[in-house]
Design a protein that fits this description.
The protein is α/β, with parallel strands linked by helices. Helix content is 61%, strand content 11%. One of its GO terms (molecular function) is DNA-binding transcription factor activity.
């Protein structure tokens, strides 16, 4: 049984969408409807919703704010946006939040049903979660393989074809660590490995790990390890 939320300010629009969905999917679907962005969030929190269909205009919270809150909690949540507003900024904002389905009113029933069918039938939630896990794994592989680069969030997002906002959210959700923390820890682990080779100058290690300012590398290393790179090297050498 698929569960869908329709969030729209207009009662007539909600009723038309409900009838369209119930006619198409009959007993295979449960439809909730609301005019409130806040209530849409509550419905998703409490009912394991497969798909949210929303307009940008809502009571209490607008569509963008509503989507941000939902995606922070459930990055995999399927969302279709439909609106009268053909605004590039709004469309781009939704895309950055991980919403690819952005339809313009007046809605064409066949087009809407095709998009809904794709979202809730061809790719159920568990499959979407699997894809997210796979995406995060590929991001981690990219980080580990390119540890010598200056791995900023925007750089990795561009290389792995995902928005910076979405990458940040799904990465924290899946790994329990934020992106910057993970990258820093991996760089410091590599630095410790290189520091054990006393023939490699510390400044070279800094550049090797994508730190263009050796002083910044020292600052980061000390924050993580409680000692400077040279102190770590001396300590390790003393133990050898």
């Amino acid at each position: 049984m698929q569960k869908v939320v329709i969030a729209d300010l207009e009662p007539i629009q909600r009723k038309c969408l409900r009838l369209l969905l119930e006619e198409r999917f009959q007993k295979k679907i449960i439809v909730f409807e609301t005019e409130s962005g806040r209530e849409a969030i509550q419905l998703i929190d409490n009912n394991n919703i497969d798909l949210l269909i929303l307009d940008t205009r809502l009571v209490e919270l607008d569509g963008i704010t509503c989507t941000k809150i939902i995606k922070e909690k459930k990055p995999w949540q399927k969302i279709i946006v439909y609106t009268m507003t053909n605004d590039h900024y709004i469309r781009e904002t939704f895309q950055k939040l991980g919403v690819s389905q952005y339809l313009l009113k007046p809605l064409r029933p066949k087009l809407l049903l095709a998009n809904i069918n794709k979202e809730i039938c061809d790719e159920p939630i568990h499959e979407n979660k699997r894809k997210i896990k796979s995406k995060v794994a590929s991001i981690i592989d990219f980080i580990d393989s390119n540890i010598h680069e200056d791995l900023t969030l925007s750089y990795v997002a561009g290389k792995t074809e995902i928005s910076s906002y979405y990458l940040s959210k799904v990465f924290k959700k899946e790994t329990g660590k934020n992106f910057v923390t993970y990258v820093t820890e991996r760089k410091i682990e590599k630095a410790k490995e290189l520091l054990r080779n006393v023939e490699i100058p510390i400044i070279n290690i800094s550049f090797e790990l994508g730190y263009t300012e050796p002083s910044y590398f020292t600052k980061v290393f000390k924050k993580v390890e409680g000692m400077t790179p040279s102190q770590y090297r001396n300590k390790h050498t003393a133990w050898s």
